[in-house]
What does this fold into?
Amino acid sequence: MGELAVEKHVEYILAVEKRKDSFESVVMDHLRLNGAYWGLTTLDLLGKLDTVNADEVISWIMKCQHESGGFAGNIGHDPHILYTVSAVQVLALFNKLDVLDIDKVATYITGLQNEDGSFSGDMWGEVDTRFSYIAICCLSILRRLDKINVEKAVNYIVSCKNLDGGFGCTPGGESHAGQIFCCVGALAITGSLHHVDKDLLGWWLCERQVKSGGLNGRPEKLPDVCYSWWVLSSLIMIDRVHWIDKGKLFKFILDCQDVENGGISDRPDDAVDVFHTYFGVAGLSLLEYPGLKAIDPAYALPVDVVNRIFFSADN
Amino acid sequence: MYGNSWDEDRAMDLLNQLEAILESDPLIDEVGFIHPSQFVTLCKEGGESGDSSEDDVLGPRNTKFWNRDHKLGISTEVLLPLCKAAKGAFMDAMKQYRTLNSLSNNKHEHENIMYGSLSRQSFDSEIMKHSRALLLLSCDFGTAWNSRKLVVSKKQQLAMLMDELLLSALVLSYSPKSEQAWSHRRWVIKMIAGKCSTMPEIITKESELVEKIAERSKMNYRAWNHRCWLVSYMTREQMLHELKKSRDWAGLHVADNSCFHYRRRLMLGILKNSCCKQECDDSSYDVENYQVVKEELDWNEVLIKRYVGREALWLHRRFLSQCSISHLTMNMHGISSQSEQKTSMDNEISIFMHNELCLLNSCSTIQDMEFEDFQAQAMYSAIYYLWLIKLIPQFRESEVQVKLKAGNLKTILHKTCPERSFLWDFLDLNGSL
Ligand SMILES: [Zn+2]
It folds into this structure.
C-alpha cells in the first residue's frame, strides 16, 4: 500500500489559490469561502496550517460578511447559510471566533428557521436538511443553540427519514449519503441519536462499500472519495464503523492520490481537486491514519479545535 | 492574459453578441459548448460559410456563436473571456441597482420619483440581460439567480415567472445537475402556486421535464429530487396516473435507484392519502392501495428475473414487501375478533412468504461463476432474505425451515460477499443459521 504524500498535498493546496485565470477558477469564484474551508482544514489535519497567513484570510473573510450577519461565498455576492458555516469553521480553525459579532451571525441563522422546524438556505426559501445541519452546527460552535427551536428542528429532520433508514433533503426525498451525514450530524450535536434506527441505517451505509473498497453515495453509483467522509463519519456517529472493510477503503483513498503533483481525485486516475483532497484526507483521519490530526465526525473540524471551542467557552 | 483593455473590449464585444442573440431568439431551448474544430463543421453543414462574414465589423462572428432552430452553440475558445465579461457586467449592474435602492429608501424619495421609476425600469432590464448571459456560462452563480428573483417578485407577472422556467430549463440543458437552476424552478412554482389555475398542468410539465433530463443525465439526484418534491402538489388521481405513466421508463432504466425511489414516493403518497380519509369510511381505497403494491411487487419480480444482479431492483423489493406485510398485519389487527378472516389473513401472509422463498431459491443458484451478474444476483437475493428475517417477525419463525437448493444463507453469503462483515455479525446474533 502507498503512503499519503503529505508534502505534495500541502504544495497542491497552496498553489490552488494562486491559479486564478482558468475557466474552472472563474466559475468556482462564487464559492471561494467553501474552498477556503476545504483547503485550510486539510492543511490543519496535515499539521501545516501555519504555512498560510491567517490575518490575510481573516480580513478577506470579514469582507464577505453581509449586513444581515450572513456570509457570502466571496466579496460582493449574496449571503447564504452554506458560506456562513464555512466562515465560522475557518475562524474556529484559526482560533479567531472573537472577531465575529456572534449575536449578529446567530440572528441571521435563527431567522432562517421556518414554522415546521426546517431551515431555509437564505432569504429565498429553499429548504434542505443540509441547512438544518449547518444551522445546528454553526449555532453550537457559537454557543447559541438555545436561540432556535431545537425540538422542532429535530422533528423536521426525523420527518425526512425513509423506510430504508436513510435520510433525504426534504420529507420523501431519496436517501443519499451526504444528506445522511447532515441529518445524523445534526441529531448527534443535539443529543437526539435515539431517533435513528442504527442497525437499519448502518446496514444501508455498509452496502455503500463496493468491491474496490471505495464507498458510493447511493445504490448502483460508482465509488467516490468524498463518500469516504460522509459514509464513514455517519457510521462512526452511530457506532457501526466496524461493519465495513477499513483496509480496503484505506487502499482506495490512497490510490486516488496524484503522488507527483499532489491532490486527491474522486476515483483513481481522475483529475484532482480541493474538494476531494479534503474529503480524502478527512476520511483517512477518521480511519486513524498515522500522523494525521483526528477529525470530529459531527463538526467536521479537527478534534483539538472542537475541544478548544467548548473548553474555553466553559471558562 | 485578458488584463489589457484591448482584450477587455473584445470580451465586451463578445458579450454584446451573445446578449443580442438571446434577445433576438427568446425561444432558445438548448445551449452547448463547442470545440472550435467542431464549429467549422457545424457552420459548413448549415451552409453559412458561403457568405463569408469574416469581414464583419464585429469580427468573425460565426466562429464564436452558432444559433439555429432555437439551439445555441458557444465556442469553448471564448468561454473564459466571455464569462469574465458577463460577470463584470452583471456585478456592475448590481452595484448600481443597490445604490439606486438605498437612494429611494431614504428621504429624497419624492424628488426621485420620476427619475427613479424610469431608471429603475432600465436597471431591471440590465440585470435581467446580464444575469441571463452569465447563467448560461456559470450555472451555479447564486447571486445572479437571486437578482432575477428580486426583479421578478417586484413585478408579480405570470408571464415573467413562466420566462424564468424557460431560462432555468435552458441552463439545465447544458448543466442538468445545476442545484441552483432546480432550486430556482421550485421558487417560481411556489410563487405561481397561489395564483394560477393551471397548476396541475404545470406540475405535469415539470414531471415531463425531469424525465427528459433524466434520459440524458443518468441517476441525476437533483432532477429526481425535484420530481419527488412535485408529489406534494399532486392529488391522489395524479399520483396514480404518474405511477402508471412513469412505469415504462423505470423498466428501461433498472439501474437507476432514483426512478424507483420516485415510485416509492408516489406509493407512499397514495397510501397516506387513504389513511387520512379512512375516517370517511372509504374502504374501497384500501383494496385499491393493496392492488397498487401487489402489482408493483409482481412487476418487480419480472424485472428481477429479466435483469440479473441489479441492486436497485432488490432494494425496491425490500420496500414493497415491507408495505405488503404492514398492510396484511394491520388488517389482521382490525379484525382480530373474527377468526375466519384472521385465518385468511394468516393464509395471505404465508402465501407471500412462500413466494419470496421461491424467488430466493431461483435466484440464489449461481448458474455460472464466470458471470459477475449471477454472483451479484445470488448475493442480493440472500441479503434480501436476511433483511426480511430482520424486519419481519413472521420470517424469523420460519427461517429454521429454510431449505435452499444452493445450501444455506451463510454458504451463499460466504461465496458472494466475504467482505461484508456486518452480515456475519448479524448472522451470529441470530445463531440458528
Ligand atoms: Zn465526489
